[in-house]
Amino acid sequence: MAQRTLARYLTEEQRDKGVITGDLKFLIEIVSRACQAISVAIGKGGLGGVLGEAGSDNVQGEAQKKLDVLSNDILLDANEWGGHLAAMASEEMDLPHLVPHRFPKGEYLLTFDPLDGSSNIDVNVSIGTIFSVLKCPEGADLSTPEAAEKAFLQPGTAQVAAGYAVYGPTTLLVLTVGDGVAVFTLDREQGHFVLTQENVRIPEETKEFAINMSNQRFWEAPVKRYVDEMVAGKSGPLGKDYNMRWVASMVADVHRIMTRGGIFMYPMDEKVRDKGGKLRLMYEANPMALLVEQAGGAATTGRKRILDLQPTHLHQRVPVILGSKLEVERVTGYHCN
Ligand code: P6P
């Protein structure tokens, strides 16, 4: 049987099911090709002169890696000319990037974390690109980058597509257009993404949790209680032994959960309380929350459903607890009692 490429899958979603528009199909294709180019750049590693620091800081005050900047440029260059976008926003840029006047504008907004998990680049551990697509509100003020920020401030339920590429032993693209979650594997010889799994389902229960344990003394009581109960194992109140994983690349940790279940937590803690959390809402928490919910999981801040949050600013940070539904509901319940 002929390979179901990403293009064929998107055509089925557009032409046969009417789930997406032709412009959204084109947008996702373009983003996937940018991810292919990022995968090639990463794959060169030290041979490509792209490792190490860029010598600059991003809006988050984080030192940028050369590959952070390169990945951001690849996504901007790939997406600004096609006529499907009105503007883009990135973890690496303070303000939105408006489509230059010389190019046609479209009806979509694209946000992305061009290279998530940068601290893992130089030690050759999986990293990824996370992206989210919104519709640009009618009559949005896109006269300046400052004015354009308002158009992006939509709840996660407004996303029309979300996905991530994970650059690991293989390069995968994991995507939802609101009709379940599909996984595509990059066929480097053919130069395209091929469908390798659809209708991804996250098991409702798990024995695996992901959290940075070094923050334990900073956690709120409900998280401390939950992690203590998992560590207590079979003899504890949860009556089973748990395993722990922490890659420190959200994309890699989330992909493990999409594949075999688990719970991922970057909860509110005293270290990050003044910032609102560690992870960014618009281009980390929201796209991952949509993917997880589309795969039968759950995603909350510990107190609220992430997708229901009304963003207040572009680089807003939030606590994130996501993964196997019953486990997320358990620890969220601890916050509410
Ligand atoms: P820590 C990567 O920098 C990131 O934004 C996520 O991908 C990851 O889950 C988290 O931060 C890791 O944070 O504090 O463990 O280094």
User: Could you name the CATH topology of the largest domain?
Assistant: Fructose-1,6-Bisphosphatase, Chain A, domain 1
Radius of gyration: 19 Å
| Count of discrete domains | 2
| Ligands, deduplicated | 6-O-phosphono-alpha-D-fructofuranose
User: Could you list the spans in which at least 5 consecutive residues all have pLDDT below 50?
Assistant: none
As laid out across the biggest beta sheet, the strand order is: 4-3-5-6-7-8-9-10
Oligomeric category: single chain
- Compressed to H and E, one letter per element, the order equals HHEEHEEEEHEEEEEHEHEEHEEEH
Residues in helices, as a percent range: 25-40%
Shape by Cα distribution: globular
Q: Estimate the mean pLDDT confidence.
A: 96
- Could you give the count of β-strands? 17
For the sheet with most strands, the description reads:
8 strands, mixed
> What proportion of the residues form beta strands (DSSP E)?
15-25%
> How many DSSP helices?
8
Structural class by SSE content: alpha+beta
CATH superfamily descriptor of the largest domain: Fructose-1,6-Bisphosphatase, subunit A, domain 1
Structure report:
The mean pLDDT is 96. With 337 residues, the protein is of the alpha+beta class. The strands form 4 sheets. An 8-stranded mixed beta sheet has the order 4-3-5-6-7-8-9-10, sandwiched between helices. A 5-stranded mixed beta sheet has the order 12-11-13-17-15, with helices on both faces. The chain has a two-stranded antiparallel sheet with strand order 1-2. The chain has 8 helices and 17 strands. The protein starts with 5 loop residues before the first helix and ends with a helix. The chain has 2 domains: 192 residues, Fructose-1,6-Bisphosphatase, subunit A, domain 1 (Fructose-1,6-Bisphosphatase, Chain A, domain 1); 129 residues, 3-Layer(aba) Sandwich (D-Maltodextrin-Binding Protein, domain 2), CATH 3.40.190. Bound molecules: 6-O-phosphono-alpha-D-fructofuranose. 6-O-phosphono-alpha-D-fructofuranose binds next to loops.
